[in-house]
Amino acid sequence: MDDLKMSSAIRVTNLVVGFGRQVVLNELSLDVRRGEILGLVGASGGGKSVLMRTIIGLIPRRSGTIEVMGVPLDGAEERATQAAATSWGILFQQGALFSSLTVKQNVQFPLRENLQMSQSLMDEIAIAKLEMVGLRAEDGDKFPAELSGGMTKRAALARALALDPAIVFLDEPTSGLDPISAGDFDALIKTLQQTLGLTVFMVTHDLASLNTVCDRVAALADGKIVAIGPMSDLLRSEHPWVNAYFHGKRSQMLQPKES
Amino acid sequence: MRAHPGLTAEATDEVLELRPSGSWVSLNVAELESLTSSAGTKIGNAKAVKLNLGAVNEIDTVGAWLLEKLSRRAAAGGRRIEMTGVAENYIGLVEEVRQVNRREIEPAPKQNPVVAKLADLGRSTLGAAQDVTVFLDMLAALSFALLRTLRRPRSLRVTSLVYQMYRIGWQAIPIVVLITFLIGAIIGQQGIFHFRRFGAESYVVDMVGILVLRELGVLIVAIMVAGRSGSAYTAEIGSMKMREEIDALVTMGLDPVEVLILPRIVALVLTLPILAFIGSVAALYGGGLVAQLYGGMGPAIFIARLHEAISVTHFEVGMLKAPFMALVIGIVACSEGLRVKGSAESLGQQTTTSVVKSIFLVIVLDGLFAVFFASIGM
Hints:
Radius of gyration of chain B: 36 Å
Strand content of chain A: 15-25%
Strand order of the largest sheet of chain A: 6-7-8-3-9-10
Largest interface: A-B, 28 and 28 residues
Order of helices and strands of chain B: EEHEEHEHHHHHHHHHH
Oligomer: heterodimer
């Protein structure tokens, strides 16, 4: 059990991804440990989302290997990817809830497709998931178009957690939320990660969430991971881009002025 | 790692001890459901229930919920519940699940079926009346926008107008020509085949000429335009509505009717007559070709007969209808587009409604015009 805990949830080795002539990820390697919350930062358009989408199999890779929970994902083997798909849940930036289904049906969708359970149990599980992410049971009957931004994110998180995945991918989970809602959402992620024992891979720009919820932070620049470690290590990093990111004007504003 | 799930129940003087074991995860949900429901029946007259999770080697939300449901069922009879042996890494999950589904959801009040049917009927009647108001609203908004544009001709969006005419006119010509040509040929062939029995083959020219110029040319083209361009209008405006682009226009002080809808409908009104003309000519050509190949009537005779059979009136009747049909198609397509709500489903539904409604209205309008022209003697 111990060696399993120590092993990585996601292991990316020498990954190369590009479109046409442009190379977005160049020989990138990254390990995500089991049970940690890893934050990924990088410039806009720098390949953060590309990395996430490559790991979950939405973008083909040129070379390199990806292992999820110890199982290598081979692009040619669709079956392996499908099996892996039940071990992860993804929260897309805009929620990507199915607009023609109610919130409850959205949460039930993966359950219905992958498992054989009675409708009444499915209803109870869906409501349980909604309550876990801080929504009310009544919200389950609403359609995605009727939800506010924060509720959409929560509902999408409930759907991502429907199959009790081991890994959750979050694409900018707090973008577009006010600081209070964003803080609540951060706390929610932390709680769920602890109660459900999740591994969380989080793409974010939110310095506050990086600081409060992430166990480790990885910085992506020039198609590579240039720094990885706890927040305190990254703050001391010598890499010019990382330095600029954490010590820029916007981040300075957050820190108390020293006289 | 994965072990078969099990649930043993042991009753010792009024205390029932339940021992779940193995993998209580969602993959085994079918077995778990039957295990817990059969254990539920054994609770019977036990005074206390002990739930020992010591033998469970993995558990997820589904498993935890099923056990929680079992213990709630036992607790409902006033029994004492004791839960022991939860592995340390699952305590959080088990505790979390104890909190959920506590509140009763108020069931929606049930309606009398007769009342519900009547309510449905009333709602659809109102909906039909509303359709008329929506149509008239759009017509009025369009007229105002047109008047405003006439007063300030510079505010007409020429680029957009020309682009729309290119899209719904120029790009539609090949398919319009092909289909009307085929329709003309088919009418010609049928006419020759049936008139031959009376030796009246030459009257096929009258039939093709009058039918195509008065009715079919414009009707077929209008139906094609409704399917081809009307649906595109609805989908475009609908998706703009979904992505708040229409709201963005309004906040910039612009009138969406003037910016988006007027150029589209004006383009349609200007283009449909041209397409109808091209289509009519193609249909006559198809009829003439069949007359020669199938009926043995040379082009010279066909044209001479055509001169005798038709007058400018027939042509006028057809062409006069075209802009009105275009107006109806445009108004229906744009107003349905504005009625799109947030979901992808509603976009599809509104596009279908737009096409069905505009084809229906075009045919009704054609019927009204037939009555009108007959009464004024055209």
